[in-house]
Design goal:
Helix content: 40-55%
Oligomer: single chain
Strand order of the largest sheet: 2-1-3-4-5
CATH architecture: 3-Layer(aba) Sandwich
Distance between the termini: 21 Å
CATH topology: Rossmann fold
Radius of gyration: 13 Å
Shape: globular
CATH superfamily: Response regulator
Number of helices: 5
Number of domains: 1
Structural class: alpha/beta
CATH class: Alpha Beta
Order of helices and strands: EHEHEHEHEH
Strand content: 15-25%
Largest sheet: 5 strands, parallel
Length: 128
């Protein structure tokens, strides 16, 4: 059983999923999904609490995914990753329930810092 923190990256672009998986799998237990429906199944089955999701995807977009996560879990950290900054502005994403917002192309060191911060928050929040 892995003791690494579980992180899910949701993006319909295979190359982006592969990039995130390669960049972070040494330190984190990385899961990837091509859409929100697959992501929800992974979240439930694997108790994943750190999620980075694209906003524009087929089947279920990142907005709907975030709303569904927030219906049942206010503790998870959900971050938007988008190339469509004109359609989805930061304020709208915050109102929906996103904890953070990244514009593509994402700076991997910045994302690594965000992951570390998210992990520390969860540790603090879930301490018994």
């Amino acid at each position: 059983m892995s003791t690494k923190t579980k992180v899910l990256f949701v993006d319909d672009e295979k190359k982006i999923r592969e990039l995130f998986s390669e960049a972070f799998s040494e330190k984190y237990d990385v899961f990837v999904a091509a859409n929100g429906i697959t992501a929800l199944n992974l979240i439930v089955k694997n108790t994943i609490r750190i999620i980075y999701t694209d906003l524009q995807m087929p089947k279920m977009d990142g907005i709907e995914l975030c709303k569904k996560i927030r219906e049942h879990d206010m503790i998870s950290i959900v971050c938007a990753v988008t190339g469509y900054t004109k359609l989805f502005e930061l304020q709208e994403c915050r109102e929906i329930g996103f904890d953070d917002y990244f514009k593509k192309p994402v700076d991997l060191p910045l994302l690594a810092e965000s992951l570390k911060d998210s992990e520390l928050k969860l540790i603090r929040w879930l301490k018994k």
